Predict the 3D structure of the following.
Amino acid sequence: MANQTDYNDFLHKHRDVFRRFPLELVHGIPLMEPIAQQWAPIENFQARPDDLLLSTYPKAGTTWIQEIVDLVLNGGDVEKARRAPVYIRIPFLEICSPPPVPSGVSILVDTPSPRVIKTHLPFQLVPKSFWDQKCKVIYVARNAKDNLVSYFFFDQMNVTQPDPGPWDGYVKKFMEGKLAWGSWYDHVRSYWDEKGKHRILYLFYEDMKEDLAREVRRVKDFLEVDLPEDALQKIVHHASFQTMKKNPMTNYETVPNAIFDKTKGRFMRKGEVGDWKNYFTVAQREEFDADYRRKMEGTTLRFRDVL
């Protein structure tokens, strides 16, 4: 697609191809049917040494880190970050829809270097070329309960993923790893376990909420970008939740209703830490906490505000 208008017009024109796709297993991981059916080009994707991969479990701060990275790489130039919606600026590696909608791989093949690439793939499904090429990876993890709540509301308005159903059942599906992109527990643990063997910067959503300037400094140091303090503070302001929620280049309001049904909610909802306390019953919390302790046993990975 030549630009954002062309791309959005194209999606509107072909909106009839979108529906709630079922999940299919790919190497044991549940992914949306179009992704599973077009898996070979994803698995065989050829990374370039200067590629930067941004990885998260869904609804763990993906758009946030995309906007921060784009601003850092552009020296804090806010106008450059307004050149197109974030989903066009930073293509989604594994996303697939039925033809003729282009896949993430097909878009990335034609994207000039250096490329910044988004993925939700767990570590074991990331194309091996990223590790062979020693690419840099930034991973953002969010505490399980807040991540679950955000994903639940997202699945209500994202009409390309399975219907979330009632809250109680969704909590169980999360615990069992039966949501798109699989188990949160395996996802966050696998990148944590591999960060010492690869060039992975591991960030926490809660740390970003606590002190965004500190975490932006970590990002710019990891990317080896010189950034004056005034540019860094500009990034901190521009990347605040309230600013991004109002920004059509980050709030996904330009995505057609055939994909995101805005009568069911908004892509950027609250962005809070601890919002899970408004949704978990005492019984759900007790069951979830016991299961969490079992699944996270033996790891040094620790989250704040989860138990």
In short: The mean pLDDT is 89. The first strand starts at residue 23 and ends at 26. The radius of gyration is 18 Å.
